[in-house]
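Entry 14. Ran structure prediction on the chain below.
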Amino acid sequence: MGFRLVLQVVLCAAITAPALAVVPKKIDTVDPRLVQRPALTERSQPIDLDEPTSAGAAAREFVQREGGRWTFAVDRRTASPTLVQGSGIPMLPGKGNRLGTEVLEGLDLRDGRLTIEGIEPLVLRFIQDQPFLSLPGRGELVLNESSSQIRAEGRLVSVYHDWYVDGVPVEGARCSCGSTRAT
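Output, structure tokens:
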């Protein structure tokens, strides 16, 4: 009986040995010296214009000043807007507003055509006039030329700025201004 048991053990070992040999060795791809940074997720929530918070007061003031219909969302941790969407504020002259070409005076327009670099001073002035919308408390906004575009023969304009603090870009922080105009 002992011989039979030994034979069964040997046969089982012989049969399972090749199966064990094909299991790949687990390789840890993460360097153990790497310290993972904690993930920061935005906690964006809509603002009710009647709410008695600083964000609600800022949104009310904005709507009273600019008029129209708007929706807002803020990051409740910072009271900074994450979304401002609505009727629009004219920045470039077109059929849909009462702005005249004097708005473009002093801008560097190539052959009378809009360029991102040419209208950037106008966009920065707009942002400074609307600090509730997008002006960071510190650092600077740097034009993101690869994301900014003028399309449809100047009727659609999107200008993006990245936020830098002490020369370092803030990951995921971007300020965008867009314009749609009928010409």
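Residues 112-183 form one domain. Will compare against last week's run tomorrow.
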